[in-house]
Amino acid sequence: MREISTEVIREALLDCVRRACFILMPDVRQKLEESLRTETGETGKSILRQLIKNAEIAAAESRPLCQDTGVAVVFLEIGQEIHLTGGSLEETVQAAVREAYKKFYLRKSLVDHPLNRKNTGDNTPAMIHTRIVPGDRMKIGFVAKGGGCENMSRIGMLTPSVGCRGVVDFVVQTVRDAGGNPCPPVVVGVGLGGNFEKAALLAKEALLRPLGRPAELPADRELERTLLKEVNDTGVGPMGLGGRTTALAVHVKSFPCHIAALPVAVNLDCHSHRHVETVL
Ligand code: SF4
After folding, report:
1. Does 135 share its domain with 195?
2. Residue among 274, 278, 279 nearest 104 (CA)
3. 78-130 per-position pLDDT tens digit
C-alpha cells in the first residue's frame, strides 16, 4: 500500500487551478499558432493573434485567461493500492478549490440553487468525478469550465438507424447553433455510446486529452477527422465572426451501448481550454 496524504492532494490541486487559469496550455497555444497559418479570413487571423497576445499577457502578469474562471471540474483516478491519509478526500478537494479561487482572486461563479441563484461565495462545490483504477498512482485532472461554452453543449439520444451520418450531423449542428457563444475556436468533446449519463461524462473526459493526440480506437479517429473538417466547413470561425477556424480539435470517446440506442453528447470548450493533469 502506498500512502498519499490529502495535504499533497491539496497542494497539487492548488497548482492545477493556478496553471489552468493563468497559463494557456502548450498544446492549445500550438494549435492557435497552426490555425493562424491556415486561417484565410483577415478578421479570423486578427482574432487568433489577439488570443495569443491575451495568453502572453495572462502569463506575464499572472492574470486569468478569461474573466469567467469557470466551474471547477475535478477528475480523480485513484489507484486501488493507495491508502489515503489525513482526512476526507471530498472535503480536501472542496477546500482546495475554495482556497485556490480565493488566493488567486478568481471569479466565484457558483450559485447555491439553480432557481434561488445565491452565489456560494467561494466557487464550490466543485464537480468531482472519481474512478478507482489498478496501481498505486493517482491522476488528478482539472478543468475550469466556462459558462458560455458549457451552455452550448447538447446530448442526443439518437437511434442506431441514423448511423454515422446522423452522429456527424448532430455534432455539426450543435456547433453551428452555438455560433459565437462558446467563444470559438472551440475544442469539441464528443461522448459516443454508453447511456444518457455516461455519454455526457465521456464528452467531458474527451476534453482532457492533449490536443494533437488521436483517439485510441480507429473508428473514433476516423470520426474525429470527418467531424473536424465538417465543423470547420461551417464557417463559424473565431469568435463566431467567420473563418476557417471554428474548432482547434474534435475529440471522440466511445463506449459500448444498448442495441436500441445511439447516445451522443457534445461538450464544447472555448479557446482558453483550461485543462491540466498531474500524476501523484
Ligand atoms: S466561454 Fe470561455 S472564453 Fe468565453 S467567456 Fe466563457 S470562459 Fe471565457
Report:
1. no
2. 274
3. 999 999 999 999 999 999 999 999 999 999 999 999 999 999 999 999 999 99
Query: Is any atom of ligand 1 closer than 6 Å to the C-beta of 73?
Result: no
CA dist 187 and 24 (Å) reads: 14
- Residues 221, 145: Cα–Cα separation, whole Å: 25
Question: Could you tell me if the CB of 272 is within 6 A of ligand 1?
Answer: yes
Residue 39 falls inside a structural domain = no
Regarding the beta carbon of 193 and ligand 1, being less than 6 Å apart is answered: no
Q: What is the pLDDT of residues 257-278, one digit of tens each?
A: 999 999 999 999 999 999 999 9
CATH of the domain at 84: 3.30.360
Which atom of ligand 1 has the smallest separation from the CA of 271?
Answer: 3
* In-domain check, residue 239: yes
**In 3D, which of 273, 248, 277 has the Cα closest to residue 21?**
273
Q: Flag whether 186 is in a domain.
A: yes
CATH number for position 211: 3.30.1330
Same domain, 195 and 246: yes
pLDDT band at 2 (very low <50, low <70, confident <90, very high): very high
Structural domain that includes position 245:
147-273
Identify which of 73, 135, 83, 163 has the alpha carbon closest to the alpha carbon of residue 109. Answer: 73
pLDDT band at 181 (very low <50, low <70, confident <90, very high): very high
148 lines ligand 1 (CB under 6 A): yes
| pTM strictly above 0.85 | yes
| Cβ 270 under 6 angstroms from ligand 1 | yes
Partner residues linked to 139 by β-bridges: 77, 279
Which helix (H) or strand (E) segment holds residue 123: the answer is none
Assess if residue 26 is contained within a domain. no
Nearest CA to ligand 1 atom 4: 183
- If asked whether residues 81 and 126 sit together in one domain, one would say yes
Q: How far is the CA of 272 from the centre of ligand 1 (A)?
A: 7
